[in-house]
Amino acid sequence: MAPPSQQRKVRTVAGESLLERDFQLDEIRAASLVAAQGAGRCLLIEAPAGAGKSALLQAGSEIATREGLRALPARGSELETELAFGVVRQLLEPLVT
């Protein structure tokens, strides 16, 4: 077994194994706590394809839900580039229908 300094940290959130994502999960948790108190926060998650962005977003959704927040999913696509506020529509449509 590798010494602790060389072991890779794996955390399981929302049924997903997230490798070495403690910093990102802590940032999401901190933003959720601030948002739960009524102050807005914006987080940007960017990485190359296959780097685990979707798993991190799913974990963030679970963290926010545990803090009493509502997580609203949306996905941008090239097909929506001509549709003004397409992602906003995706976010809010379930709330008004």
- DSSP summary, beta strand count: 2
Order of strands in the sheet with most strands? 1-2
Unreliable segments of 5+ consecutive residues: none
**End-to-end CA span:** 54 Å
Radius of gyration from CA coordinates: 16 Å
Outline, from the CA principal axes? globular
Order of helices and strands: EEHHH
Mean pLDDT: 83
Instruction: Note the main sheet.
Output: 2 strands, antiparallel
* Class from secondary-structure proportions: mainly alpha
Helix content: 40-55%
Number of domains: 1
**Count of helical stretches:** 3
What does this structure look like?
The protein is mainly alpha-helical and 97 residues long. 41% of the residues lie in helices and 8% in strands. The chain has helices at 22-36, 53-66, 86-96; strands spanning 10-13, 16-19. The chain has a two-stranded antiparallel ribbon. α1 packs parallel to α2 (53-66).
Give a concise summary.
The protein is mainly α and 97 residues long. Helices cover 41% and strands 8% of the residues. It has one domain (4-72).
Topology at a glance:
Layout: E1 10-13, E2 16-19, H1 22-36, H2 53-66, H3 86-96
Antiparallel strand pairs: 1-2
Helix pairs in contact: 1-2
List keywords for this structure.
97 residues; mainly alpha; 3 helices; 41% helix; globular
